[in-house]
Amino acid sequence: MIRLIQFDDLSLFKKEVIPFLEQAEAENNLVLGVLQALTEEAKIYYMAVVYKGASIGLVLLQTQPHQIILSRYVQLTSEDIRSVGESLHRSLPDIPGFIGEKQATSELAASITHFRGGIPAAVFMNQRIYKLETLKRKPLSPGRLRTIAAKDLPTIREWVYQFCIETNQAMSEQEAAKRTALLIQKGLLAGWEVDGKLVSMANGTRPTRTNVTISYVYTPVSERKKGYAADCVAALTQQMLDNGYKSTSLYTDLSNPTSNKIYMEIGYEPVMDSVVLLFQ
After folding, report:
1. Pairing between strand 247-253 and 211-218?
2. Separation of alpha carbons 87 and 51, rounded Å
3. Looking at domain 2-119, which CATH architecture does it have?
4. Range 132-272 has CATH code 3.90.1150.200
5. Structure pTM?
6. What does the pLDDT look like over 71-111, one tens digit per residue?
7. By CB neighbour count within 10 A (0-12 exposed, 13-18 middle, 19+ buried), where does 157 fall?
8. Hey, do 2-119 and 132-272 end up sharing a CATH topology, with the first three levels equal?
9. 269-279 and 121-132 as β-strands: parallel, antiparallel, unpaired?
10. CA 69 to mean position of chain CA atoms
11. What is the SS3 string spanning the chain?
12. What are the domain boundaries of the chain?
């Protein structure tokens, strides 16, 4: 029997779902990392759990207006997912979109489309989640990894802004400045420096019990095709492993074969395909 249960209490929700999510930390790095960082004062649009019998099959969390994050699903058939879609449509009729494992997310969106009278969901991005436990390739260029500091704000602010443009994230320059300041404050934003000049950046984010995610990988156009992004990610990855994490993970855009190739050369292995689907 499939049941969709909505939660209103954040602490109860965390207690219920975190042990389930931690069974696959890399695949669930987005929903798990976001959930663990939430406080009672945070804006939360939706929290729910899908049960199949007595077991959790899927976790749903929405903290942003444009999409619901789906966990990796377990033991749910296509018929089960259609049943989830019907229950979800009844409890949340204005679903904006989803991000999650490709097959289940696509099936769930198709179910929602049916119950909403044919309103389609468009693919915003096809992604792949990678996981690394052992680094296979160390940095090759004669540079060093260093923590991004407040003095780097003018440079990194522009990089964050350009990164968001290239990844289709709508953001003003003022919003980019605020986000950059927050990233620097958290202390996990790092840059690859060559001859005293920053040439690439990467960020550690969403730390969980044994995993941390690498994000905001960016190299300015003038410094590309020199291997700096690969070196920056490799060095930051090793630093995270040295800090005690058993693995690191990252998302890639499947439309960018170059980044997918260099991450695999470093030692990242694909664990799950993900998709962002937004309703028109």
Report:
1. parallel
2. 12
3. 3-Layer(aba) Sandwich (3.40)
4. no
5. 0.92
6. 999 999 999 999 999 999 999 989 999 999 999 999 999 99
7. buried
8. yes
9. antiparallel
10. 9
11. CEEEEECCCHHHHHHHHHHHHHHHCCCCHHHHHHHHHCCCCCCCCEEEEEEECCEEEEEEEEEECCEEEECCCCCCCHHHHHHHHHHHHHHCCCCCEEEEEHHHHHHHHHHHHHHCCCCCEEEEEEEEEEEECCCCCCCCCCCEEEECCHHHHHHHHHHHHHHHHHCCCCCCHHHHHHHHHHHHHHCCEEEEEECCEEEEEEEEECCCCCEEEEEEEECCHHHCCCCHHHHHHHHHHHHHHHCCCCEEEEEEECCCHHHHHHHHHHCCEEEEEEEEEEEC
12. 2-119, 132-272
Closest among 60, 50, 64, 66 to 101, alpha carbons compared: 60
Q: Which residue has the tokens 């990467």?
A: 202
Question: Which value, in Å, is the radius of gyration of the alpha carbons in the chain?
Answer: 19
The total number of residues written for the chain in this structure: 280
Walking along the chain (280 residues) 10 residues at a time, the average pLDDT comes out as: 96 98 97 94 96 96 95 94 96 94 96 91 95 94 94 95 88 90 93 96 95 96 95 97 97 90 95 94
- 257's torsion region: left (phi>0), alpha (psi -120 to 50) or beta? alpha
Structure tokens at 141: 């260029």
Q: Encoding tokens for residue 235?
A: 């060095």
Residue type present at position 20? F
